[in-house]
Amino acid sequence: MSSTESELNQLRAEIDSLDEQIINLIQKRAGFAKEIGRVKKNSNEPIYRPDRELDVYEKVSKKSSGPLPASVIRAIYREMMSGTIALEHPLKIAYLGPEGSFSFEALRSKFGSSIESVPLPTIADVLRSVDADRVDYGIVPVENSTEGQVSSTLDMFLETDVLIYSEMYKKIQFSLLGFQTDINSIQKIYGIRIGNEQCRSWLSANLPHAEIIETSSTAMAAKTVAELKEGAAVASKIAGEIYGLHVIQEGIEDVSGNTTRFIVIGKTHCPPTGKDKTSIVFSLANKTGALFSVLKKFNDHNINLTKIESRPMKKNRWEYNFFIDFIGHKDDERVKTILSSIKAECLEFKFLGSYPSTDVNQ
């Protein structure tokens, strides 16, 4: 036996010994998690806690000194927590399907693989499914860094009683997928509207002759191309792998670093973490200074607004609902004061949730 082989065998023996310890510790951790699940069930507490999830990620990231980066450690713990949650109570999570959509990728990034994923054809179906208690949670896109708000998500908050429970940001990269390799022979392009818009310049420059056909999701675009054996799809590389399509061109989005914010919706409230965000929606009387009066309250209380959007009211023409995100939790005294004050000035007011604020770069 050479000295190199002897050294490798010794190192591998060390790894085998460590693996045995790691497995034993993982199973021991799972046993404690199972007991926590029992306590939660007896006290009727939610199984999934985004505040606890955030706490675990922050602690293990700080304890990680390399050589593996913190992102890898987080991914390992995501799967461990996914598995232990399944021991406590198998979660059913609805998402905009089918499998291979960006919502599916976001679901896996957030909850891991040890959950029951429920693909649904529209964003509205996801929110209605959560509202009707057919699933535990749903995950949907709410805004994009280049295209702005996802209107169908905002509108459905007015028709359901769901709450925002958590948020996450995911970088989006589009690929052109299909069976054909000759781009000039492509006559039809399938894709979701917002995805087509984010790739508009590339598509116009490279496929000006092709007919663009809108689908309900990027994954449905890939599935349609796979079934019809024609055209090309604007979708993710993962969708191409799932439906057996070639990557004709990668990275066709017009703006690099394109990011979508996804939200987890449910019916439970998340406790404060000290780093939270709150979302509300309200309507105001159509009179001078009404919106200014509400926005001024945030300034007076030194509360940072992170987003404000307006959506037309369907019943009253030229009147609007205002969606606002701001830093703070509903249980914070300052936030309690301002929400009480705002309600008094609104025609309608709806609390949409307080949840851990997530770093866009994570």
Plain-language structure description:
Its EC number is 4.2.1.51, 5.4.99.5. The protein is α/β, with parallel strands linked by helices. The chain has 4 domains: 3-87, Chorismate mutase (Chorismate Mutase Domain, subunit A, Up-down Bundle), CATH 1.20.59; 91-172 and 259-264, Periplasmic binding protein-like II (D-Maltodextrin-Binding Protein, domain 2), CATH 3.40.190.10; 175-250, D-Maltodextrin-Binding Protein, domain 2 (3-Layer(aba) Sandwich); 269-356, ACT domain (Alpha-Beta Plaits). Helix content is 42%, strand content 26%. The strands form 3 sheets. Strands 1, 2, 3, 4, 5 and 11 form a 6-stranded mixed sheet that branches. Strand 3 and strand 4 form a beta hairpin. Helix 1 (3-42) packs across helix 3 (70-88) and helix 5 packs parallel to helix 6.
What does the secondary structure layout of this molecule look like, with pairings?
Blueprint: H1 3-42, H2 50-63, H3 70-88, E1 92-96, H4 102-111, E2 116-120, H5 123-131, E3 137-144, E4 148-149, H6 151-157, E5 163-171, E6 175-178, E7 188-192, H7 193-198, H8 200-206, E8 211-215, H9 218-228, E9 232-235, H10 237-243, E10 246-250, E11 259-266, E12 276-283, H11 290-300, E13 305-312, E14 320-327, H12 333-343, E15 348-356
Parallel strand pairs: 1-2, 1-3, 7-8, 7-9
Antiparallel strand pairs: 3-4, 3-11, 5-11, 6-9, 6-10, 12-14, 12-15, 13-14
Helix pairs in contact: 1-3, 2-3, 5-6
